[in-house]
Amino acid sequence: MVGPAAKREGVAHLQAALGLSERRACSIVNADRKMIRYRSCRPPDTELRTHLRELANERKRFGYRRLFVLLRQQGEPSGINRIYRLYREEGLTVRKRRARRRAVGARAPILVEARPNARWSLDLSETSSPAAGGSVS
Questions:
Q1: DSSP letter string over 1-27?
Q2: What share of the chain is helix, strand, coil (3-state, %, to 5)?
């Protein structure tokens, strides 16, 4: 699925490169002409975007929900949907945790003795110990 911005670019390209009319280019791209001519009246939100980006850089493990709470505590009246839209438009994401370091080297195999009573094992599970309520018979 292609968004309105991509369709606008496609229509502009067809008009510039092939010299097509707006009506013909819109029919090829399958776009409505009102959508092509639309200009947004929405304010740019530059202060809120910069503040959101600063908070996200300070607290790298905070997602948009916790950043929304911080902004709300600082007196920002915007709703969570607006904060989420700006968060996505700025390309902010929670940083992935680094992988745990794994043990290096091969593990030594357990030696199995050939004679009886050479190795003893102790079962420390909760069900078999008398202190945990296990039965002693």
A1: ---HHHHHHHHHHHHHHH---HHHHHH
A2: 45, 0, 55
Q: Give the whole-angstrom CA distance, residue 134 versus residue 128.
A: 5
For the stretch 37-46, contacts whose Cβ atoms lie closer than 8 Å and that sit 24 or more positions apart, written own/partner, are: 38/4, 45/86
Residues 67/83, Cβ–Cβ less than 8 Å: yes
What is the residue whose two structure tokens read 């300070």? 58
Residue 15 amino acid letter: Q
Q: Which residue has the tokens 């740019």?
A: 44
d(CA 108, CA 125): 24
Residues 6+ apart with CB under 8 A from 113: 119
Contact status, residue 39 vs residue 58, Cβ threshold 8 Å: no
According to the model, what pLDDT value does residue 83 have? 96
Predicted pLDDT of residue 131:
59
- Residue 126 or residue 82, greater confidence: 82
Q: Which residue, 98, 43, 91, 99, is CA-closest to 64?
A: 91
